[in-house]
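haha ok so turns out i had the wrong file open the whole time. this is the CORRECT one, sorry everyone. sequence first:
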Amino acid sequence: MNKKVLIIDDERTVLRGLEKLLKGESFHTTYLTNGIEALEFLEKNKVDMIISDTRMPDMDGEILLGEVKRRHPEVIRVALCHISENRRISKLIEKGLAKQYVFKPWDDSELKMSINSILEMSARLLDEENLGKINKLNELPSLPSLYHELVLLMERDADIVEVSNLISRDQAIASKILKMANSAFYGRKTGNINQAIMTMGLNNVKNIILNNSFFKESSEAMDKLWQHTIDTNRICIAIYDQCLNKRIPSLFGSAGLLHDIGRVIMYMFHEDEYGPVLEELGKSEKTLIDLELEHFHSTHQDVGAYLLNSWDLPYAYVEAAMFHHKPLDKRVVNQELISVVHLADYYATELLSSDGVHNLLDQRVFERLNITRQEVENLVHSLKV
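then structure:
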């Protein structure tokens, strides 16, 4: 693979442990003890990934990752965090400073798999052959202006009043945020946009803005697809809550909204070609993936993952787009989340949808999640009624 990884931690014992662990891997690794050295190194050397401790003297990880994002946006940024640093992790992800995080203490095999998988995914998304297929679709969209403005506010730590004022300019977005904040998952009863934003977290607010921006034009097919994303997200949250007995990670509470963004884009920008594919789907034994490959030589998974990655969204969202039909692929880092998205996508399609799409269910996910098929189907039935 010949990829290069830069690891920064002020504790030399940590670096020695990582050096021993990662010796012999397919990527080349450099180890430094402070952020200033890291920035100097990056000016002179090509690096594919940086893994930085978040708590360091002189220049902490947040400042370093922010500088790397500004100066070298092509470098994959991973935060090395203590397991107690939930708020710091949320801040890094919400501000787009880190694509993925690794906890201290780490599991050796999981850490190696994570680094290899992220590097492999990056190579796949930037592969010239794959890019050629995706670029044939033309006119792939840029980030919506409201989303971009919100990111800029977050980067300078604007207060909640500024954020809510920005969002209130778009009443359609504001109403969707209020509706989700008042849902059973968040358990908040409020008509105040400030309170809704604080309840949901800025990362989820960003993703609602992103998703909703591509559903401006109404048509029967787009309305069904919008409902599918809503149903998928609702089932994701419910599976975590009622089957896994825990809340979905707050940073990824809108994974269901974005998993099918590739379908949205392919239909929205290529309705003349994509519409007939959906019509054929209703009369065929083939899956949507089969027909997409046949007609476009690329799939909504490729398009979705490419776009979310190019928009610098967290790695978990990129995985949800790429692997929601193959959740137990050995390359998946966030396997629990992607397994839940897989189930939610399947049941939102099979039981709550009538758009002609048929997906395959990987029944191994029930064992992976330590839940039964009957539990999930009872849950989905209760949501349906």
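The chain has a mean pLDDT of 86.
again sry for the mixup
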